[in-house]
Amino acid sequence: MFMIMFVSKTIEQASEVLDVWVKAGIQGVTILESAGMQQAAGRGFRDDVGITFSLRALTRATEIHHRTLFSAIKDEATLENVVRATTEYVGDWSRPDVGVLFVWPLTQAYGLAK
Q: How many domains would you assign to the chain?
């Protein structure tokens, strides 16, 4: 098994990569709102929140447009399809603002087979 993660620069890009992944054979994807170090540094830390707070309250001044997609993939053939399709969509990974893709082995997973 493998874990694959794509960090997008825009909401639109994340949506398009999600479509690419589904067409390439992924059956389930988790999508998170995310921010890079530069976005967090520009916003700074707030000191007006108590112990109980929400992420929405922390980010209400500036909407975060990054999305992180990740999925567990059971076999190497599907992984290769997803990586190839994502690379075809992105093009040259060395260009700025195309997102980043990570893949790593997944040794254990629970709750996937329903």
A: 1
